[in-house]
Amino acid sequence: MNENWKDWQSPPGGTGNEFDNAAIGALAHLYRGEVYRSTIWRTRLDTTTNWSVVTLGIALSISFADPNASPLPLLLVGILISMFLILEARRYRYFNVWRARARWIETKFYAPLLLRSAKPDPGEWQDVLAKDYLRPQYHIGFWRAMGRRLRRNYMWIFGFQAVAYYGKIIIHPLPLQTIDELLTRMAVGPISGVVIFLTGVLFHGAWISLTLYSNFLDKKKHGSSDGVEGMG
């Protein structure tokens, strides 16, 4: 057995930073439970992402099925995808609790155990973990969670939606000839094309701003680790 690991063990009923065999076994089961819960919530995140991809695919099928088909479904699907993003951000806040706990145990307990040249962290990591169980709370805010989901998945979904919409406008029913014709095709009922264009710029600009801002907050708190090592 690792010499450093021997030094970390104590007789039955050990205290402080030391663990006896029973405590080590209990911690191992605790870790398995946290990994299981994070896996369950990871699956739920994938579900909402899949819903977004499927609804965008349906909108594409409807709009590109015929040259005279309306591009309106590609606009409306943006609202639906936004609702999925909000739902996924709420789910991510739950997922992040279990992920952070499991990662905390990995970096503070298992990693020092596996590194033969390293001594187990004598810091207050146990107190941090215990307090998180005694007073459970979200580790990140809602907007940071939404920004993370945008960076991971939704920025690509929204980007593809925008490209598909303008592609539809440009090629159907006939290839575009002038900019004025572009604005005319973008009009929806009594709403002019200029209003639709400015709304689209505001819509996607807001998501881009949130993506950059949340990335700044993550870098400020975690540096280059992007939050993979800490509780948050």
Instruction: Please work out how many helical segments DSSP would assign.
Output: 7
Q: Which descriptor suits the 3D outline?
A: elongated
Q: Strand-residue fraction?
A: under 5%
First-to-last CA distance: 34 Å
The tally of domains stands at 1
Q: Quaternary status of these chains?
A: single chain
Percent range of helical residues = over 70%
Structural class: mainly alpha
Roughly how many Å is the radius of gyration?
A: 25 Å
**Biggest sheet layout:** none
Strand tally: 0
String of helices and strands: HHHHHHH
Mean pLDDT: 87
Which residues form runs of ≥5 with pLDDT under 50? 1-16
How would you characterize the overall build of this protein?
With 232 residues, the chain is mainly α. It has one domain (3-225). It is 73% helix and 0% strand. It has 7 helices and no strands. Helix 2 packs parallel to helix 5 (142-171), helix 3 runs antiparallel to helix 5 and helix 6 (179-186) packs across helix 7.
